[in-house]
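Checklist before submission:
- one chain only
- standard amino acids only
- sequence pasted in full

Submission:
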Amino acid sequence: MTRKLGESKAVTTYLKGRYKKNYKKIIKTTFDEDVKLQNDIILDHDKDELNRMLKRIEASIELEKDTQTLYNQPFSIILVMITVMSSTGMAIISIFMNIFGKYLDSEDINSEDLLNSLQGFIP
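Returned file contents:
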């Protein structure tokens, strides 16, 4: 009897379907139930099937390790964009203030004009 154990999803659905009757909750089990489940799986399958299941599940774990960084990349890209935009904004403000400072240096401003312009400012 051959079983379709080509993908890790097929392996987990097969194991859940076969052993869910004996073990009501396969994922959240105690240590003793895990040992019983392992013994039942080992006794019910031959060595070739166990090796195939193990290889499929290990390959799935390795694939998840490789692709896990893809989930974090959008956040990294957004943080980099925020950093670049804030740095650009600060550079533009600095350039504007530099040009405005040069303009003010070229103008002759009397102290009376300065005081008159500040009198209208009420905080």
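Reviewer check: The radius of gyration is 35 Å.
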